[in-house]
Amino acid sequence: MSAKTDIPAVQAALTAHYARHARQLPWRRPPGDSRVIDPYHVWLSEVMLQQTTVAAVIPYFEKFVARWPGVTALAVAPDADVLAAWAGLGYYSRARNLIACARRVVADHAGIFPSDLAALQMLPGVGGYTAAAINAIAFDGAAVPVDANIERVVARLFAIAEPLPQAKRPIGLAAASIWPASAGGDFAQALMDLGATICTARAPKCAACPVAAHCAALRTGIAESLPLKAKKAARPARFGRALWHERKNGADREVWLVRRPPRGLLGGMLALPGTGWGEAMPAPAVNATQIGAVRHVFTHFALDLAVDRVTGMADPGEKGGWWPISRLDEAGLPTLYRRAAELALRER
Ligand code: SF4
Asked: How far is the CA of 286 from the centre of ligand 1 (A)?
């Protein structure tokens, strides 16, 4: 885009495209529909969508709203139930913030989400982007939420060639410059959809793009390279051991599970017992048989978790409990430990 860009034409093209091609998502209302959207749905979907794809989020979103139809129901749910329902979605601090946020909305706002940005940002786990998304989408507010899709589309429309994260500010200003005075929620979703379906990270489909005539990156042949990203430092490696300790109980078999401490990575979730995670692989216990290992990439490090079978321990040695293996899928194990359990069960 340039100083001469016809901003009303960009807005009209995007809005018309959205009216015809909007993705149908369970937390949305159709384009142009004036019904009020439940801010609970917007908040829940936005928290779930952080670092996670739409396809992965849909079944979780539907499960959550069926089980906890409003923020008040979620606020009184036991932590363990919410964490178990979240299992598999990853980034578990989001689930703990979800519980804390629901309780704060009930305690401080009588169970009604506030609409203004400052109050939204005071809620646990609600950062600048999520607050802006709730304000714009649920309340038709003036906030400009810039997620990764919008970031990419705007960086390309304006050919902003600074690398991220420094580019965030010029991208935010450029997004604000094309934002309409009303229906900002639909406009945000129109841009999000364009980024998800046409202005994709790789091989953008510029020939099908409703704003191609206004796109500076297309004009200059740099579309696919934007937005530039600063080089990331290599992810450090961590190592640990998990123990698979199984016993027979009548017709069933059971495995020893522990609950992780409430704070920290995978806090409050059920897990296999084992060592801490450090820079070298801990030695196996003397009574352990090595089964294999699973690799899991967290945001700040990659973990190689060896899985060992232990037998003949009278006391499993860590605070926990026996869990029936036939009902292991109900334990809500986070993905790391679900994969470790699958490995142990495969290699029996
Ligand atoms: Fe993205 Fe291409 Fe459209 Fe520009 S023309 S906004 S690069 S899809």
From this structure: 60
- The pLDDT score that the predictor gives to residue 153 is 97
Tell me whether strands 163-164 and 228-229 are parallel, antiparallel or unpaired.
Answer: parallel
158 CA → ligand 1 middle, Å: 10
Q: How confident is the model at residue 2 (pLDDT cuts 50, 70, 90)?
A: low
To 5 degrees, how large is the angle CA 332–CA 333–CA 337?
170
Q: Which residue reads 């109050």 in tokens?
A: 119
Q: What residues act catalytically? A: 46
- Cα-to-centroid distance, 191 and ligand 1 (Å): 11
DSSP symbols for 46-79: HHHHTTS-HHHHHHHHHHHHHHS-SHHHHHTS-H
CA distances from 165 to 58, 126, 156, 227 (A): 29, 20, 15, 10
The atom number, within ligand 1, closest to the CA of 209 reads 3
pTM: 0.78
Beta carbons within 10 angstroms of residue 348's beta carbon: 9
Residue 174's pLDDT is 95
Q: What is the DSSP string of 281-332?
A: PPPPPTTEEEEEEEEEE-SS-EEEEEEEEE---SS-SSSEEEEEGGGGGGS-
Location of structure tokens 């959809």: 193
Which residue is closest in CA terms to ligand 1's atom 4? 215
Which of these, 37, 36, 35, 113, lies nearest to 74 by C-alpha position?
113
Instruction: Return the structure tokens found at 306.
Output: 């060896």
241: enclosing H helix or E strand = strand 237-249
Residue ranges of E strands in 121-236: 163-164, 228-229
- For 69, residues 6+ apart whose C-beta sits below 8 A from its C-beta are none
Query: How far apart (Å, rounded) are the C-alpha atoms in residues 214 and 219?
Result: 9
Cβ(136)–Cβ(184) under 8 Å?
yes
Task: Give the residue carrying structure tokens 């923020």.
Answer: 71
The minimum-distance atom of ligand 1 relative to the CA of 195 is: 1
| DSSP 8-class letter at 229 | E
What atom of ligand 1 comes closest to residue 198's alpha carbon? Answer: 8
